[in-house]
Fold this protein.
Amino acid sequence: MPSTAPKTPEHVAIIMDGNGRWATQKGWPRLVGHRKGAERVKAIVRAAPDLGVRWLTIYAFSTENWKRSTEEVIGLMGLFARYIQREAEDMSREGVRMRFIGDRSRLDPKLQDLMHWIEDRTRNNTHVNLTVAINYGGRNELARAARKLARQAAEAGLDPDTIDEAALSNALDTQDIPDPDLVIRTSGETRVSNFLLWQAAYAEYEFTPVLWPDFTPEVFSEILSRYGARDRRFGGVGT
Ligand code: IPE
Ligand code: IPE
Ligand code: MG
């Protein structure tokens, strides 16, 4: 029997795209768009639990984004550090648990320290889970997981025959995070750009032309209602 209850995704992952174009259209430097984009993150994290979404994963910097100008890369890294410092108090009070995924080893040690600090500080929060992908690439994550398992096989007696899908999942950065139900990409681009390649194997996708700095809780809510109308079959024959 078809269910009449509104379906809400438990976990929404967002490819926040279009900050640069938003700023350029207004004749402003790209970094202004990134600053405005960071404000949007806060609004969306706040709105998520009321919309029934307890897990949010956002793509902030890809393993490919190092190709951008030094000015933009440094500006973005500064923005991440400031976001953590500025929002720590509110996130603690509002029950936001913050985590990071991605390869941290290439990041400034001071930023790495801040990332560990906020993860620790918000560890017991349960209202909403915010995961930020920084220096994240799905291929890089899978290669690191493969390396980790190979090392365990070579040095710690791991039997290669026990490496199944669950074992690989557990070797990823997302080991304690559920798979996303819905992936949203803003700015009209319809590509995945190396985001959550393994985890989004059965996710639904929604693409919107809205640029990330214009992405309001209302736009978010409207996209979530479209998700509610979908029939997820997971290879079966559906309801
Ligand atoms: C997304 O916005 C944020 C990051 C990738 C860091 P962009 O900076 O990609 O914005 P556009 O795509 O150039 O407009
Ligand atoms: C994807 O956006 C990465 C992030 C949102 C952080 P990009 O703007 O870097 O992706 P491409 O280059 O258009 O594929
Ligand atoms: Mg872009």
Observations:
- The chain is about 40% helix and 15% strand.
- The chain has one domain: 11-138+179-227.
